[in-house]
Amino acid sequence: MAIWNLGSINIDHVYRLAHLPQPGETIAAQGYALGLGGKGANQSIAAARAGASTLHLGAMSDGDDWVPRRLVDYGVQTHLIQRQPGQTTGHAIILLESSGENSIVIHPGANRQIDSAALMAAMDEITAADTLLLQNETSLQVQAAQAARAKGAKVIYSAAPFDLQALREVLPYVSVLAMNAGEAEQLFAAMPGEIPVEGLLITRGAEGAEYRDLTTGETTHQPAFAVRPVDTTGAGDTFAGYFAAARDGGATIAAALELAAAAAALKVTRAGAGDAIPTYDEVQEFLQSFPG
């Protein structure tokens, strides 16, 4: 069993602000930090920290060597990451206000320049016991999902950033579709009726999360853990990575949701994205502080 993640790798430039700027407004940052992010890298870190054997697929420049070293430090296997001369590593400009809310601008760089032949060669090793994670921040999502399903692996797709056309193309190969509440509303409006997947994982922020098993009709709800947010960046990725890892390890839907919700709640109490994702032991300690 293993988690394979065709995911984005971004270098995050984080600017702390009193409030998010309005159109035409120029404001001075109260702080700056450089960190590791990207929805893909975040989910890989979360899955690895949750205890799953995690292999990251994707691409970055042939520089920025601190990025794969840090992924390795967090337990992620990086030998399948493509290093591309002449390409820039993806990066994000993150504006973070004091309430914890954020606005993000992403430059995809190498994330959208993944070599198909190299990716398919790597995917030859995936097995029916494994899970492929995908997000809408890389190229070749459909090809990877096809290859994974052909081997019998599960495919969990985070429909973010939301793009209906990209979702339609990959949906026939998706096992579990993960979305936040806003993305779910867009999907249901655009595609009324039955969604052709096994399950829907919907996160609802302070309202918690739910998993809709579309094969049985059962819905499992998970309340959110009440915390004081510091930085919400990467919370959804933490949830998705922990959920995937828990299911990969044989956890029930209810247990996976609880673990993922706790990990996401603990993450938002910390500044940063991938670097702020908690370890499994930290999440267990956090859960013990919420008796019942």
TrEMBL record:
Keywords, comma-separated and alphabetical: ATP-binding, Carbohydrate metabolism, Cytoplasm, Kinase, Magnesium, Metal-binding, Nucleotide-binding, Potassium, Transferase
SUPFAM superfamilies for this protein: Ribokinase-like (SSF53613)
Compartmental location: Cytoplasm
Location of the Carbohydrate kinase PfkB domain: 6-279
Residues that bind K(+): D231, T233, K267, R270, G272
Keyword Nucleotide-binding: yes
Catalytic activity annotation: D-ribose + ATP = D-ribose 5-phosphate + ADP + H(+)
UniProt-listed Gene3D superfamilies: 3.40.1190.20
Amino acids binding substrate: N10, I11, D12, G38, K39, G40, A41, N42, E137, D237
Top class in the EC scheme: transferase
E.C. number(s) listed in UniProt: 2.7.1.15
Active site: D237
Gene Ontology terms for molecular function: ATP binding; metal ion binding; ribokinase activity
GO process annotations (BP): D-ribose catabolic process
Cofactor(s) this protein cannot do without: Mg(2+)
Main subcellular location: cytoplasm
Signal peptide range: none
Protein family (similarity comment): Belongs to the carbohydrate kinase PfkB family. Ribokinase subfamily.
The protein's name in its UniProt record: Ribokinase
Native source species: Paracoccus seriniphilus
Gene that specifies this protein: rbsK
